[in-house]
């Protein structure tokens, strides 16, 4: 599991969330890439590439399994 922190920016009511390098490497997310932000029924914040396909979801499974191996 990767851990991050939200930081305030100069604008009121704005926060910046850093995507840890491990997550960026696994998912291939790059600077300037657009992401949709969702909140699920459990209150989890989900970032999803705009225009992503099911093939791009495979790295997420790799991150989840890596986190499970680190936790266990």
How does this model look, in words?
The protein is of the alpha+beta class and 72 residues long. It is 29% helix and 22% strand. It contains 2 helices and 4 strands; from the N terminus they run E-E-H-E-E-H. It has helices at 21-27, 58-71, and strands at 6-8, 15-17, 35-39, 45-49. The strands form 2 sheets. The chain has a two-stranded antiparallel sheet with strand order 1-2. The N and C termini lie close together (11 Å). The mean pLDDT is 79.
The ordered H/E elements are: EEHEEH
Principal-axis shape equals globular
Mean pLDDT value: 79
Q: Specify the number of helices.
A: 2
Uncertain spans = none
Radius of gyration: 14 Å
Q: Any idea of the CATH topology?
A: Pemi-like Protein 1, Chain: D
Estimate nothing, just give the exact number of structural domains.
Answer: 1
Strand order of the largest sheet: 1-2
DSSP summary, beta strand count: 4
Strand content: 15-25%
Summing up helix and strand content along with how strands pair, one would put the structural category as: alpha+beta
């Amino acid at each position: 599991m990767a851990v991050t922190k939200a930081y305030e920016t100069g604008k009121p009511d704005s926060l910046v969330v850093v995507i840890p390098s491990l997550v960026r490497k696994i998912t291939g997310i790059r600077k300037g890439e657009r992401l949709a932000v969702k909140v699920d029924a459990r209150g989890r914040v989900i970032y999803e590439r705009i225009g992503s396909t099911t093939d791009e979801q495979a790295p997420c499974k790799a991150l989840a399994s890596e986190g499970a191996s680190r936790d266990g």
